[in-house]
Each structure stands twice: as structure tokens, then as C-alpha cells.
Amino acid sequence: MAPTHVLRCCQRGLAWIPVIFIALVVCWSYYAYVVELCIFTILSIGEKVVYLVVFHLSFIMFVWSYCKTIFTKPANPSKEFCLAKSEKEQYEKEERPEAQQEILKRAASSLPLYTRTGAGAIRYCDRCQVIKPDRCHHCSACDMCVLKMDHHCPWVNNCVGFSNYKYFILFLAYSLVYCLFIAATVLQYFIKFWTNDLPDSQAKFHVLFLFFVAAMFCISILSLFTYHLWLVGKNRSTIEAFRAPVFRNGPDKNGFSLGFSKNIAQVFGDQKKYWLLPVFTSQGDGLTFPTRLVNADPEQPAAVLHPELNKSDEDGAVQPSALSESQNRLLDNDHHSNDDQLTDALKFEESETITISVENES
């Protein structure tokens, strides 16, 4: 046990190396920009003040969101997803997978679970001994099940999931702003030092290297930031982008998508004034999520469905529901409703004497 414990401690220590590297680069960039560029190189007082104010605003927001991403503990499944003591003993005694699944099905009958494994089984973590909630996955690096796990990021030495995904997006956004601002304001002095328009000094090395580092980070962060913005718009995690979540009726990559605006609100919340601040405003509890499934799960007492289903449109027409033989039909009601209204309009133009009535089907 002792060698294993020592090895585990060494792994945890080495995992902080990327974070320490980023911290050192940020500290050096602060010194290079504030001291070497703004104080020793820039002569205009007005330019110094403007650069320093904007730089410190972006620096504070960047460091704030970065620290929140690092030190926010990943959210874990609650106790209700753990097996009772008798069920756990029975599960461990059983050797047949079919019998184990029956135990898990009984335990999960009162839980809001709508996703399954690829084989259609209840998702259970043998390591944590817990039934996995929807969108929950086990992180081997953190050795725990993480709610709405997106990925494990070595640059923050933490799992990015339900509890800190907003912080991670803001960290990418403010780090991009930070690097873009440095690259844009340093560019003219980079050119002047490169063309020897300014005398050689200690600031020359810092300014030249600062521009290269800022530009390099801009390119890498931009691609990652745009990818995660796309994920937020689709309401998918990185894991779900590579492997679609499996519902009882089969895999569905858009199963958790509620539309662009509602997908944004799932991560950033309803109040836009808090969107740019690294404070927790994400919707839900990380255990249950609204889905786009039209029909309720027949094996669940109450499904978590889209709250605005089957509402009447402005003309009083009820939007058509999905076919009963396909319970995996998604919320494309608006599309069908628009097609029906277009068809009715064409019929009206052909004959003004034809009266079209739309009756609600019960």
C-alpha cells in the first residue's frame, strides 16, 4: 500500500506542472507588459494610462476565471444514486450480468434516468459504486464520477463539468482577450525593435518574446474557444460530441438540445448581467436535464421534458405530436407546423370559397 500511496502522491504533484507553467508565463507577461513596455518603453502618458487600465481589467478577469476553474470542486452524484446496503451486497454476490441488471433496474426505477449504455443497460460505476446520472461519467484522473463531465483538462488540473464549465468558457474567453490585447498593442513596438527604430535595451527581448508568445497562445486558444462555443450552442459536452448519448430508444446526438437560446441559458443562466462574471449561474442541479424527447419515458413515473411542448400557436392551431410508433422523435414540431400553415395558405389562394378549419385532435 505504501508504494501505491507514494506513486499516487507523485502523480498528483506532477499534475500541477502545467498549471505552474501557465502561472509563470502569466507572471512574466505581467512584468514584461507593465514594467518593460508601459513604464520603460512607451513615452506617451495618455497611451500608458489607457494600456494599463485595459490590460489590468482583462488580467483580473482572466486570473479570476482561471482560478475558479482550477479550484472549483467537480460535482458528484448525490446519495440517492447510491445502492442501498442490501442491494449493494446482493449486486456484489451476483455473478450473472442479467441478474445484476435487474437489481440496478429496480434501484433506478424511482430515479430520473433517461440514458443507457450502448447495450441498453443501466449505467453503473463499479469504481464509485453509484448509478450514473444522465451525462455523468467517471474521470480516471480524478478517480470520481463527475456530473455532466466535459473533459479532464491538464492545464487547470481539474475536471471540467457541471460545476465549473461556465468558468472554463470564461477562462478561454478572457485568456483570448488578454492575448489579443497584448499582441495588438505590442505589435508596433515589436516592429520598431525589429527594425532598430528603438535603441537596444533590456525591454527589447521582453517585447519581442511577448509578441511571439501572445500570438502563439491566441491561435491555440481561438480554436478551442470556438469549438466550445459550438458545443454550448448544441448543448453537448465534449464526450457527447464524440459519442452520442444513448436513450432507451437508441443514440441521439441532439437529445439534450433545447434550441440555441435555451442551450446558452443551460450554461450561463437566465440573467444576462451575470454571463460575463465567473459566478455560478448554470441552470439545474447537474443530476437531471430537460430533453427534446416528445413522449415520456414509459418506464419512468415523470419525464423531464421540454416545458413548452404541445402549446397552441398564435392562430390557435395545436402543433402536431410525434408518431406513437417512434418514441425517439425529436421536437421538430415548429418545422411541421410551418409546413402545415404554408400548405393552408396555398389552398386558400387557389379558391377563396374554400374554408379551411383546423380542429384540435384530442
Walkthrough of the structure:
The protein is elongated, with a radius of gyration of 27 Å. Helix 2 (17-39) crosses helix 7 (202-234) and helix 3 (45-71) runs antiparallel to helix 6. Among the domains are: 2-74 and 162-240, no CATH class; 308-362, no CATH class. The chain contains ten helices and nine strands. The chain has 362 residues and is mostly helical. 49% of the residues lie in helices and 6% in strands. It has helices at residues 2-14, 17-39, 45-71, 85-93, 97-108, 165-194, 202-234, 238-242, 260-268, 333-350; strands at residues 115-116, 124-125, 130-131, 137-139, 144-146, 151-153, 158-160, 246-247, 250-251. A hairpin with a 4-residue loop joins strand 4 and strand 5 (144-146). It has a three-stranded antiparallel β-sheet, with no helix packed on it. The model is unreliable at 294-299 and 301-362 (pLDDT under 50).
Short characterization:
The chain has helices spanning 2-14, 17-39, 45-71, 85-93, 97-108, 165-194, 202-234, 238-242, 260-268, 333-350; strands at 115-116, 124-125, 130-131, 137-139, 144-146, 151-153, 158-160, 246-247, 250-251. It is mainly alpha-helical and 362 residues long.
